[in-house]
Amino acid sequence: MDVDVIIIGTGFGASVAVTKLLEKKPNATIHMLERGLWWFTMERPLPEFLDKAHKQDPSKWPIQYWPRPNHSRGIANMLSVVKTNNPVVEGLRNFIGPFVFGKDRPQPLYRYSLFKDIDIVTASGVGGGSLIYANVTIEPRFDDATQSYPVMANWPLKLTKDDYHSATPTKQGAIDWMTKKRGQAQRVVTRFPLLKELGLDPRNLDANHQFLYLGKSRALRDGSGVVGPDWKKTGDWEPLNLAINEYDTTTQTAEFAGKNPACERQGRCIQGCLPGARHTLNKTLINQVLSTKPNVTLESLADVSHISLRPDGKYEVVYKDLRDDTEKRLVAKIVIVSAGTLGSTRILLRSEAKGNLKLSNQRGRRFSTNGDFAGFVVNAQKSFPPPQKYNFFSTRGPINTSHVMFTTNDGKVQVNVEDGGIPPMLAPAVGAALRVMQENLNRHGSFMREMKGVWFAQKLPDFQEWFPITPDPSKPERFQTEDEMLMNTFYFNCMGTDDGTGVFSLKSDGSLDLKFTDNPADQRVYKVTEEIIKAMATAMGGDYVPWFTWKGFQEKKLITVHPLGGCSMGNSATEGVVNTKGQVFRTDSPTQQVYDGLYVMDASVFPGPVAVNPTLTIVALALRIVEGINL
After folding, report:
1. Confidence (pLDDT) at 33
2. d(Cα 166, Cα 242) in Å, to the nearest integer?
3. pTM of the model
4. How far apart are CA 589 and CA 585, in angstroms?
5. I need a labelling partner for 130 at 20 to 30 A (CA). Which of 181, 287, 547, 619 fits?
6. CA dist., res. 270 & res. 585, Å (int)
7. 498 and 520 in contact (C-beta within 8 Å)?
């Protein structure tokens, strides 16, 4: 098969690529390859385009539905759609699967990659990271004095305010693309939508209306007035711009006006929104591309192995059809790799090992965790008098709703702190783990054995100590709802400026390995972040409990949901894998510095952290890169 453009991936970079290329050449033949499949909710009918395609050929258009139910028994359902990179674990789960499901295991929604120093969580499905991310649409901290983004001080391409905010006929910024292709962002920090007629500002509700705040949103606001020995706030508490629909749809325009359900504060954004209020990219691809452009096709369950350059100057993409494990090949003049940090890095490394590409020796380098860090406050406000006390309810509302930023006095470390949410189905497990860690009863081995049973058999154990199922009127904790289990618990979701010293390489089986030039847990950003959230825990009147892999079940092991780098930008092949136009550097030709027609457009090109949720910056960079692609 020969097409004009092959796009590998369906996340933010890929979606920018396909929409903008169609603006340049509406009849361009574009084929998109996605390793995952389509995910939807049973609460809403399938879009007409997908419903028709699925009925005609369900094997070509396979569909799965978000993990359910939305309470403790949903844990097994969720774990059934998690896949790790550990072949031993996966081999055992594949063996057990037919006995549990009566058929093969379902396709994964989550990819949980385990490495020595860090675990990485990514999405798997049409729509990429938008399927399980927290909807946050935020730009990095901007310095008014220098009119720049400090995190980009050493980047070869420094984005500007226009790259985020412009909305002119000649320049589309990231926010404008998000709004027109996905819908207007909303701020959701209250228990229910604030009607405009009330005249209330959710950024600053007065003392008589603070009860309207979601508990966790208010808790972050009230606990943010802290200062440390060498760090301080660099911005007041603010609601986050979220890519979801709110009840007031007057701000929605064009195809989004009055057509989408509103956020119901179910607290499960990262597991799939049941009412369908989130602006996931699968909707963009269906509504604005696949249902209107027959020259654009999308193939799910297509796992790309590598890319080779042909003698005629075109590229051959080799991939496996996961339906039947057959190998397929596709040819195009232009190939855009947008498979995410792990996917794009793996594809390029394999393209040198199995294909014929000759890449920069910077390949795989400058991996950044984006400073991701987490922790908890338990027994919050335990000594506060009744007039000041309120419940946090970490299971309610969007996953993240608000944030506050901090910077060290020397300006070298930035930290963004957000209120985090815990999906209700995870509340029993999280609550049990927190009790184990806080009480220090040396029972964490027993707890982990029970959780392994859930992981391998996908069945919730009838083990009352950890998962109180049978009510006991004399023990209220035995019949708590999931909301009540974490009503006095706060979850910190933090990002910051890590050093970006990780290096990917290929193992003999073609999978990724990741090592660091130093111990990443010793980097300054994590020390500063932990100081900040400890101070905030005290301000919230509770006890700080570290994230489970930081202390307790493991020792100072990091986890990130915002992996960056691996195919970083540079001004030359000695500095990066791609140039500032996203073109892949070529090192085997004295006359050609780049591979003409081969681009990378996703978070893997970041040369460092952004210290906030990266999706808006991915879009901003992709818009800059796609400007230079000529069909």
Report:
1. 98
2. 19
3. 0.94
4. 10
5. 547
6. 36
7. yes
